[in-house]
Design goal:
Shape: globular
Length: about 220
């Protein structure tokens, strides 16, 4: 009986030991390698990303921590590759993941060459689920990670403003050119529009930057 009682006490003591918080595995719709809290690989990727923003000449500031954003930053000027992002109604600051800022800076240069001067947007960060096909899914939107932007209108180098809700389905050449570039560039994972998702994106482009937080692969071993 004494041995049984001792075994019960040991088992109870083991159960009471504090356990390390398990790192959350990436649910569906998360980038490769994404975990929460951020892994060492994610933190390293963030440092490399902000260093690249410095090389690109993008003025950025570290932002307060936000749930699910790996490297939260703001870009006070909101100019990327010569293209200015203009909010439709939300006031600054606009917190985003560095990966979105990097994609906008790299591909903003190409959009500028194509005549784009302003991109009017309604949202970047928002802790919301995926909304597509008229349904709300049980998965976090990339807005919750600070990796997506909702584009409402685009202004070209002549000052003409093309509004998605009014002009996209009229085959506006500026909107179609931007959509084609974003899809073909390789820098963006998803572009949802009134054409491919009219039930949930009838009035804006939903644009997601690509992000991969996987640890770097070790170099191959030399063959003997």
């Amino acid at each position: 009986a004494a041995l049984v009682a001792l075994a019960v006490l040991v088992e109870d003591a083991e159960a009471r030991k504090p356990r390390k918080r398990a790192r959350a595995r990436a649910p569906s719709n998360m980038p490769e390698g994404w975990t929460w809290p951020p892994s060492a690989a994610m933190r390293a990727a963030g440092k490399a990303c902000t260093a690249e923003l410095d090389r690109l000449g993008v003025g950025w500031k570290k932002a307060p921590a936000e749930p699910k954003i790996a490297t939260p930053i703001t870009v006070p000027a909101m100019v990327f590759g010569g293209v200015k992002l203009v909010p439709t109604f939300r006031p600054p600051p606009f917190v985003m993941d560095c990966a979105l800022a990097r994609a906008l800076a790299l591909h903003g240069q190409e959009l500028y060459v194509r005549g784009v001067r302003e991109v009017h947007f309604s949202r970047i960060y928002g802790n919301t689920p995926v909304r597509t096909g008229g349904r709300t899914l049980r998965a976090l939107s990339r807005h919750a990670l600070g990796l997506a932007v909702d584009v409402r209108a685009i202004v070209d180098d002549t000052g003409r403003k093309a509004v998605v809700v009014d002009d996209y389905l009229k085959d506006d050449p500026l909107l179609l050119a931007v959509e084609t570039y974003l899809n073909d560039s390789g820098g963006f994972r998803t572009v949802l529009t009134p054409r491919n998702d009219p039930a949930s994106h009838d009035d804006h482009f939903h644009v997601e930057a690509r992000a991969d937080f996987s640890p770097p692969k070790p170099p191959p071993r030399p063959r003997p």
